[in-house]
Structures
1.
Amino acid sequence: MKLGIFGGTFNPVHNGHIELVRHFADLAGLDKALLIPTKIPPHKASKNLLSGQIRFEMCSLAVESDERIEVSDVELRREGDSYTIDTLKTLEKLYVGAQLYLIMGADMLMCLDSWRDYRGIIDRCVICAAARNDDSVEELLLKAKTLDIPDDKVIISNEEIMTVSSTEIREKIKNGISVRGLIPRAVEEYIASNGLYL
Ligand code: ATP
């Protein structure tokens, strides 16, 4: 089984996230992909950083029409700080024998060496990264080389993913500007009916 893993704060989840995960699901032929909302440390919480439960719900609404994608609460449920390496170890136990594909944006690959036990991460999965904005594919390939990731354990894509960020979404909503088309419709309705990000 080929299992994609895509972690993020998803505050809120937007169409760039969904496009990215679908793109790699197609490209790598994934059987399933998990959206994994990360826990936000209490000291970082603010009015605009919504609870794990709400971010989880928005992710669930975003993927309800795509049966390949599921939302996992594996990081929200874990006590203490959340590290990707621990998530991978947990998933290895839940999905015995699965090949893991770690999906991320370019910014994440560029700082992968600052992640806890990044060698353990590289050993455990195929790294899937997409260029974001002007990040060049060459730059990402070079980074993968510097990190000593074997060629068969990295997929760098230059697929154009919608240029949008959760920050932009939050600001637009706060300023009363429409986010139509930038986030899934069901998420848009959920945010509006619960008066989030105002
Ligand atoms: P924020 O603006 O709040 O920092 P974000 O939009 O970057 O949020 P995150 O939940 O932090 O979203 O991102 C999760 C992952 O998705 C990261 O690896 C990030 O690089 C990637 N990502 C987010 N938006 C895009 C996009 N439009 N294109 C490609 N990758 C993206």
2.
Amino acid sequence: MQKREFSVGPYEVRGKIDYDKLIKEFGVNKISDEDLSRIKKYTKDLHPYLRRKIFFAQRDLKWCLDEYEKGNKFFLYTGCGPSGPIHIGHLSVWSFTKWLQDKFKTELWFQFTDDEKFLFKGKSYDEIQKWTYENMLDVIALGFNPKNTHFLIDTKHAGLLYPEAIKVAKKINFSTIKAAFGFTDSNNIGSIFYTAMQTVPVFLPNILRKENRPCLIPLAIDQDVHFRISRDVVEKLGYHKPAILHSKFMPPLTGMEGKMSSSEDNLSILTTDSEKEIETKIRKYAFSGGRSTIEEHRKKGGNPDVDVSYQWLTYFEDNDEKLKKIYDDYKSGSLLTSELKQILIEKLNKFLKKHQEKRRKAGKLVEKFVLKF
Ligand code: TRP
């Protein structure tokens, strides 16, 4: 069988992703200008990731905002699969989520799927527990409001999640899971059940609070697969389908294919990297859209559309005018690759220095975030 040129799912992201094709295949909707002005009506300004179409697709956003307008405010739900260190790609979805939390003053339910990562990765239970704690520090460092943010840890909150998960699981066939995730008979039986666990936070807050609020999930589009399966199930159980905002992937250091991964060190920048490490990684590995010689670059210009340093700046330089100038200068050849990399290095170091300071203090706050039940 011929391998497709790209593939996007929770357990594999590969190739150069055609996002327009994905929209069709996944049956999601492009975020329209109308959607954006609707959001802006409530938030006053638009997050750069919305302006830049990094968050580019949605499900049921209109319904979610209609309810909001009627006074039925949504809660936010997102999550983290704790299998290793956090890289700057993870942070993009979460910092956008924080913006939503601030603008709409909503509750956020944040799931740590230690069960998932134990089942899917060749790592011990203890190792996954260590990463769960480490990853919580990064989430907290982003500045979420502890009064409005609740961490659910699948194995720790099992007593709360499991009774609901089995209700979900009973309505999903093995054949559906096999087809959606490409599982075979050799997948372990825990992995087959897992989607049910990821579904529960869609409606758990409504059970706990005896309410009927919409759930809005910001996620990277690979995670849509779980919810595509469970949206109908949720409805059959008597709850609303969740609304979803989908983001693109931040490209790995080495080029525009696949997504960033922390299992391969040199493809990503970790939140714990030192200034020196960041500089070395970017200088050495960041795929460049520049020409092979300075003379040629000055004459013909570079290609920011494939240049990873430029692409990463679209995540870290909030100022549209500054960003546009960098784009134009690189394209015209007046900005060299080494200079572009320098801009990125300084930007990232400044951001991560602050992040690391907050991360060091985050340990004391963990208790405040983990849901008491
Ligand atoms: N499965 C996700 C991961 O591997 C973690 C997760 C759980 C999640 N619930 C979520 C991600 C909801 C986005 C939205 O990272």
